[in-house]
Amino acid sequence: MREVDVVVKLASPAGGVKPRFTPYHVFMALRIIAEKGPIGRPSLMKDIGLGEASTKTLLRRMRSAGLIGIDSVAGAYITDSGLKLLKALSSVIKIAGEVSVEDVCRDCNGFGVVLRGGAKAIESFGGAIRARDEVVRQGGIGALILYVLSEGRFAMPTPTGLEEASSLSAVRDLRSIKDLREGDAAVIALCYKSDRECACYAVNSALMIMRN
């Protein structure tokens, strides 16, 4: 997906220096600036959880890419190009937020992302096991991958097929997402850390899956 490539490139190393922000921070900055902009740097720093230097670098890169503008008084605002990119990403990546995973990992936090057409995307990525491995690579301790079936049912992909999963506590939270469709998928990052860090793992993994 070309739009994902744009986000990933903005968070890539430049001049041999790896930034402290990730594609997650680029995506969330776009969402926040679109919703609250114009927004000053101190407020954006707080909302996305980055330090001042990293936020300045992120904003500079986003501005150079034509995704935002900077008003010297009011702060950052989204451009038409930035809004177009955000709409494209948001049409396939929907933030579910904090998800209950107590029946899978008692002491874990869970953060979910729903991918439009995600079941096919995950299979193209290498399957559910590779998707779980991606969440671990991003920093999570594991992941719960669920496919949306017909009539609002959910299933967990396993090496031998699909296992009914509609009774999981996570499914109750996922059903709050509007317009779930057969063929969608949920990527739920499991972690012991804060919700923000868990969100970072889930969104970064989702972006890598949809980039494939």
Task: List strands and helices in order, with pairings.
Layout: H1 2-10, H2 23-36, H3 41-48, H4 52-64, E1 68-71, E2 75-78, H5 80-90, E3 93-98, E4 109-115, H6 118-125, H7 128-138, E5 142-148, E6 154-158, E7 161-164, H8 169-174, E8 185-191, H9 195-211
Antiparallel strand pairs: 1-2, 3-4, 4-8, 5-6, 5-8, 6-7
Explained architecture:
It is a single chain. The protein has 212 residues and is an alpha+beta fold. 46% of the residues lie in helices and 21% in strands. It is built from 9 helices and 8 strands. A 6-stranded antiparallel sheet has the order 3-4-8-5-6-7. The radius of gyration is 17 Å and the shape is elongated.
Nutshell version of this structure?
The chain is of the alpha+beta class and 212 residues long. It is built from 9 helices and 8 strands.
E-strand count: 8
From the coordinates shown, what is the CATH architecture of the largest domain?
2-Layer Sandwich
Under CATH, the topology of the largest domain can be stated as Gyrase A, domain 2
In percent, how helical is the residue content? 40-55%
The geometry reads as elongated
What name goes with the CATH superfamily of the largest domain?
GAD-like domain
Identify the CATH class of the largest domain.
Alpha Beta
- Overall mean pLDDT stands at 94
The largest β sheet comes out as: 6 strands, antiparallel
Structural class: alpha+beta
Q: Largest beta sheet: what is the strand line-up? A: 3-4-8-5-6-7
What Rg is obtained from the alpha carbons, in whole angstroms?
17 Å
